[in-house]
Design goal:
- With about 290 residues, the protein is mainly α.
- Helices cover about 70% and strands about 0% of the residues.
- The protein has 14 helices and no strands.
- Keywords: Cell membrane, Membrane, Transmembrane, Transmembrane helix, Transport.
């Protein structure tokens, strides 16, 4: 029999819905503002103050400036390569590391875990890392972007906890049937951890897609620049200055270019994220609860 909600319960649930709706609007509006502003007329946008709910006029001038840049398409391709290669390396090493650290019979489990966690709070710094990358011959190559951050300590811990939540009896049964560690990992552990792996792929892919600082430090060949770094250069190139009429027109266009740049760099992630959303909560919860 379904329990009837009391008036207090109904009021509480209504307040929760209202609060969550307001929080949703607060999170959604900044992106809506950026998209609407990117389609607005530059002069109308500069004159307007306050909330933007629809395009002010209509103009694709900002997108024209961004797309006509000859470095956009190559940088898109570079970013896709960096995301695919980097995420593949991240997942491969994270899975192997998490499996080893989640096994009860592994003697070095505790000291290695402490050593890995130590790196989450302390690092050598920018200059030593740069000298190391250059000394290893990775400077101005794709490997300078994907190898230094090959494993995220946080993601490794989440994956390790997820593996530990799988019943040990499954592993014991497999070993009785003659299965080795590779069979257990790929036939038992990974199929039961699909949700967690989907979340890890999302985290790593978004991190690679959004990364620009490492590329600015480690790359000098512009043909290898990722999208985010090219977007940054477009924003800098369209920064206006001075007091001439030409500079005033450039100032109007600059605002539109900023918004258009954000949209161009964000749209691919916005299309991919909803498909991974269904795995997000289940994956995080599975990786945060230990049996």
């Amino acid at each position: 029999m379904k329990k009837q909600k009391s008036p207090g319960d109904r009021i509480f649930i209504s307040m929760v819905y209202v609060l969550m709706g307001l929080m949703g609007l607060i999170c959604l509006y900044p992106m809506w503002h950026v998209v609407m502003a990117s389609f607005s007329d530059p002069i109308e946008l500069m004159r307007h103050t306050g909330v933007i709910l629809k395009p002010l006029g209509f103009s694709l001038e900002g997108y024209r400036v961004v797309i006509e840049n000859p470095n956009i398409l190559p940088s898109y391709f570079n970013t896709i390569v960096y995301v695919l290669v980097g995420t593949a390396i991240n997942m491969f090493l994270t899975i192997l590391g998490a499996y080893a650290l989640s096994r009860k019979g592994f003697m070095l489990k505790r000291p290695l875990t402490l050593l890995i966690v130590f790196t989450m709070y302390f690092n050598a710094g920018l200059i030593p890392n740069f000298l190391l990358v250059k000394g290893l011959g990775l400077y101005n190559t794709i490997w300078a972007l994907v190898l230094p951050g090959a494993i995220s300590t946080w993601n490794l811990i989440v994956m390790k906890t997820s593996f530990q939540s799988i019943p040990v009896s499954l592993e014991e049964s497999a070993r009785l049937d003659g299965a080795n560690d590779f069979v257990i990992l790929f036939k038992i552990i990974l199929p039961l951890s699909k949700a967690t792996m989907a979340v890890m792929v999302l985290f790593y892919a978004v991190a690679h897609w959004s990364s620009w600082f490492n590329a600015m430090i480690y790359l000098r060949d512009k043909s290898k620049f990722p999208l985010q770094l090219v977007m940054r250069e477009i924003l800098i190139a369209n920064s206006s200055g001075g007091n001439s009429m030409m500079d005033t027109d450039a100032m109007f266009l600059e605002e539109i270019v900023k918004y258009s740049t954000i949209v161009v760099a964000t749209v691919p992630i916005l299309f991919i994220y909803p498909f991974a959303q269904k795995y997000f909560m289940s994956g995080v919860m599975m990786g945060s609860v230990k049996e």
